[in-house]
Design goal:
The structure holds 2 protein chains of 2 kinds. Chain A is mainly α. Chain A contains 11 helices and no strands. In chain A, helix 7 runs antiparallel to helix 9, helix 9 runs parallel beside helix 10 and helix 10 packs antiparallel against helix 11. By secondary structure, chain B is mainly α. Chain B is 77% helix and 0% strand. In chain B, helix 5 runs antiparallel to helix 10 and helix 8 packs antiparallel against helix 10. The longest helix of chain B has 38 residues. Chain B is flat, with a radius of gyration of 24 Å. Classes of the chains: A mainly alpha, B mainly alpha. The interface between A and B is large, with 43 and 50 residues.
């Protein structure tokens, strides 16, 4: 499933029969047909093409958010796990609070301050969802920090930062990979949710959430607009969730997320 | 003091500075917002003097830290100021919306616990069998589904085609509750089933369960008497920690169904840049977050005596 969505995203210009912003006032709100596989929207744009291009946005946004989350979360987690005491306590306290805070509300606050837009939403979601990485990296590092190879590194005079980056980090990569795969669908769902509310991608960007918002207002006349992007969202999220579950079973069966 | 009371007291003590810090942070963030609220309230034709007067009367001419102290003192007594848009007291707006949100969230919370946990446990007990795959397949599906899309699809099928339930608003009484509650609950059932399954599998793999089987206890006693209790603790605690998330989900569900709760109020306030209302709602949720964290810790300690005594350096 993930592969399929990736192929669609990469091959969007070849797969999509029309441009995502190409309007056609004559063919408005057409139901699915051979000509328009998923029908058209209120501006006569081909829904299939929009969804195909939307796959690019969804994946790109998901990867970007996950990358920022991992960068923030792993750094804090490794530091917290490596240095115990007050540093650990402070980082853990912040992590707990951010973890418990509903991402949509925090993201909405960020949007209130920075204005609407896809970039803002990416930053907002990334800033709210890193604690998963922190928690897992902290626990892992705590279990590794007294092992012989770390003690040996310290004995030969490696600096703390070197130990963290060159000795501990490589051991975390399988877990980070699993957590990334499992946070990616959440990242996509949150960003599309904000676009759905109108705070994310602005028209004519074919973000799936934005298309769904179009569909919501035409629900009784043109239900296909709201149906198809959601199907793709579910396929994408489900694909990554299953991939993540599978990766976990292979790489790190004891990991809990 | 018992160990439990001491533990609870300590947690509450840590919570107070966190609340103050969150409040300060929120205040400073909201100060950075673009757009001048006075200009938004006053129309184009209002004179400069009038605008200055308004600014004074709202206290916006004072230095930032003074504004914070005023605001903080008022907030602590439950006064969140007035909405820039409707000019009503913010606390009144929130109190009038709160019952609607609770009407949606509380049944969802109970339902997802009562249905989700047993489902997860049934799946865990039948690990690798068809009922495990079926339950987990369905819950993976709902877990991967954006709530607003689920809401739209339910609206489409049950509201527009079958016409069983109204598609939005609150006018039809209980019937208008059905679709929003379903939208809320289904993903949460899926979520709690997933967690309950993981916890139960973990417990079932422990030595003491193997001992219980080896002693020749009936499967009923092993599962109900030994495994269930330890498996349910983390799930229960999770529910307290997740309560703010459920409130957060209200923004989306309530907006989809035009349900006049706090989530919808937040959505509208952000669009209208009604800062006092945004500030108040986010603050309430932030306090709720801290409160639920403390409550979750206390519940965990009550259910599991091992947690009450914290090892030093934790």
């Amino acid at each position: 499933m993930v592969l399929g969505i990736a192929v669609i995203a990469v091959g969007a210009p070849i797969i999509a029969p029309r441009g995502y912003a190409e309007t056609d006032p004559v063919n408005r709100l057409l139901p699915p047909s051979a000509e328009y596989v998923f029908g058209t929207d209120a501006l006569g744009r081909d829904l299939f093409s929009r969804i195909v291009y939307g796959a690019r946005i969804a994946l790109w946004v998901g990867l970007l958010v996950t990358f920022i989350e991992a960068a923030v979360g792993v750094t804090l987690g490794v530091i917290a796990g490596y240095f115990s005491g007050i540093v650990d306590k402070a980082i853990s306290a912040v992590t707990d609070i951010v973890w418990a805070f509903p991402p949509v509300v925090l993201a909405l606050s960020v949007v209130t301050v920075m204005g609407a837009g896809l970039t803002q939403v990416v930053v907002a979601i990334a800033l709210t969802s890193w604690p998963a990485f922190t928690r897992i990296c902290r626990a892992k590092v705590q279990s590794l920090v007294n092992r012989e190879f770390v003690l040996a590194a310290r004995a030969i005079g490696e600096s703390d930062w070197n130990i963290m980056a060159r000795y501990l980090l490589p051991n975390l990569i399988p877990s980070i990979l699993v957590v990334s795969t499992l946070t990616l669908p959440a990242a996509i769902l949150y960003t599309t949710a904000l676009s759905f509310l109108g705070f994310g991608a602005q028209p004519p960007t074919p973000d799936w959430g934005a298309i769904l918002a179009d569909g919501a207002s035409e629900l009784s006349i043109a239900p296909w607009i709201a149906t198809f992007p959601g199907v793709f969202l579910v396929i994408t999220a489900l694909g990554f969730n299953l991939l993540g579950d599978g990766l976990r079973d292979i790489l790190d069966p004891k990991l809990r997320i | 003091m018992s160990a439990l009371a001491r533990y609870a007291f300590k947690k509450i003590l840590i919570g107070i500075p966190v609340v103050i810090l969150v409040t300060l942070l929120l205040f400073l963030i909201m100060k950075q917002v673009p757009g001048d609220p006075i200009r938004m309230m006053a129309s184009e034709r209002v004179t400069k003097e009038k605008i200055e007067e308004l600014r004074r009367s709202w206290g916006l001419d004072q230095p930032v830290y003074i504004q914070f102290f005023y605001w903080f003192a008022k907030v602590m007594s439950g006064d969140f100021g007035y909405s820039y848009v409707t000019r009503q007291p913010v606390s009144f707006l929130i109190w009038s919306r709160l019952p609607y949100t609770l009407e949606l969230t509380l049944p969802s919370l109970v339902l997802s616990y009562v249905l989700g946990v047993p489902l997860g446990i049934i799946a865990a007990l039948g690990r690798g069998k068809s009922r495990d795959y079926l339950t987990m397949g369905i819950s993976n599906f709902f877990y991967s589904m954006p709530t607003y899309w689920l809401g739209l699809m339910l609206m489409l099928v049950f509201g527009l085609y079958l016409r069983w339930f109204p598609i939005s608003g609150t006018t039809a009484g209980l019937a208008s509750l059905v679709l929003p509650t379903l939208t809320y609950t289904l993903p949460f059932i899926a979520f709690s089933a997933r967690i309950a399954r993981t916890e139960m599998l973990e417990v079932l793999g422990e030595d003491y369960i193997r001992t219980a089987w080896a002693k020749g206890l009936s499967s009923g006693r092993v599962i109900l008497g030994h495994a269930l209790r330890n498996a349910v603790i983390p799930v229960t605690v999770m529910f307290f920690l997740d309560f703010p998330w459920i409130i957060g989900g209200a923004v989306i569900v309530e907006t989809v169904f035009s349900w006049p709760g706090m989530g919808h109020l937040l959505y509208k306030s952000i669009i209208q840049l009604d800062y006092p209302v945004i500030q108040a709602i986010v603050l309430i949720i932030a306090i709720l977050v801290v409160l639920c964290n403390i409550l979750g810790d206390i519940v965990a300690a009550t259910l599991d005596p091992r947690i009450r005594i914290e090892p030093e350096g934790m």
